[in-house]
């Protein structure tokens, strides 16, 4: 599932590609991906423009010139492609927004959605999310941790605790901090809390800088999207040697989620 770095990469790349471009058409092959009738959806979009793209947690908010907001959550397996008809991947596209000669295609929206809302409704829908990791200083981070009693893995993927971190980066942050994802939050010392905070800040910024771990390019010639994938320290590297000590990476399951760590490097 795309997490904070992936959605931030999409936001940055799409901002330079589609802002201000008139929407000339809409195709919908899966009405369940929307929250309104496809005809109403098309009527609201055609002739409109996207004037700003905002990211909140794992969501993208496409602000339209008329004031409405397209709220996107890709969920598991969702991704986007921007390009001409000839460049489109040979995949089923659930929603296609045409912008002149190009289209922004939404693919894999079996669990995800692209909903049309007013700003007020959008705010209400997102208000339960926890703070963004980059919004917190160390003191604020410690204060947020105090209310948690579970292990680090479950805590980091809880979107009411911090927003935007999921399976991949929870494991990567714990490895960077030298802490087992199975550690209970109350057991962390002050120094370990500092290690965790610094690891979170540094690793998320690194992942954003190299385009996250999405494997599919956003457009033909995209050399940024997905460049973090080969840089993963532990995630999806079961039995491969740890990059620090050479011990095999362990895969386990925590609350029905895959979890990867090095038993030698992480305490």
UniProtKB/TrEMBL annotation:
<dbReference type="Pfam" id="PF06831">
    <property type="entry name" value="H2TH"/>
</dbReference>
<dbReference type="InterPro" id="IPR010663">
    <property type="entry name" value="Znf_FPG/IleRS"/>
</dbReference>
<dbReference type="InterPro" id="IPR010979">
    <property type="entry name" value="Ribosomal_uS13-like_H2TH"/>
</dbReference>
<keyword id="KW-0479">Metal-binding</keyword>
<comment type="similarity">
    <text>Belongs to the FPG family.</text>
</comment>
<keyword id="KW-0227">DNA damage</keyword>
<dbReference type="InterPro" id="IPR035937">
    <property type="entry name" value="FPG_N"/>
</dbReference>
<keyword id="KW-0456">Lyase</keyword>
<keyword id="KW-0378">Hydrolase</keyword>
<keyword id="KW-0511">Multifunctional enzyme</keyword>
<keyword id="KW-1133">Transmembrane helix</keyword>
<keyword id="KW-0238">DNA-binding</keyword>
<feature type="domain" description="Formamidopyrimidine-DNA glycosylase catalytic">
    <location>
        <begin position="2"/>
        <end position="163"/>
    </location>
</feature>
<dbReference type="InterPro" id="IPR015886">
    <property type="entry name" value="H2TH_FPG"/>
</dbReference>
<feature type="domain" description="FPG-type">
    <location>
        <begin position="233"/>
        <end position="267"/>
    </location>
</feature>
<feature type="transmembrane region" description="Helical">
    <location>
        <begin position="60"/>
        <end position="82"/>
    </location>
</feature>
<dbReference type="Pfam" id="PF06827">
    <property type="entry name" value="zf-FPG_IleRS"/>
</dbReference>
<keyword id="KW-0812">Transmembrane</keyword>
<dbReference type="GO" id="GO:0008534">
    <property type="term" value="F:oxidized purine nucleobase lesion DNA N-glycosylase activity"/>
</dbReference>
<keyword id="KW-0326">Glycosidase</keyword>
<dbReference type="Pfam" id="PF01149">
    <property type="entry name" value="Fapy_DNA_glyco"/>
</dbReference>
<keyword id="KW-0234">DNA repair</keyword>
<dbReference type="InterPro" id="IPR000214">
    <property type="entry name" value="Znf_DNA_glyclase/AP_lyase"/>
</dbReference>
<keyword id="KW-0472">Membrane</keyword>
<protein>
    <recommendedName>
        <fullName>Formamidopyrimidine-DNA glycosylase</fullName>
        <ecNumber>3.2.2.23</ecNumber>
        <ecNumber>4.2.99.18</ecNumber>
    </recommendedName>
</protein>
<keyword id="KW-0862">Zinc</keyword>
<keyword id="KW-0863">Zinc-finger</keyword>
<dbReference type="InterPro" id="IPR012319">
    <property type="entry name" value="FPG_cat"/>
</dbReference>
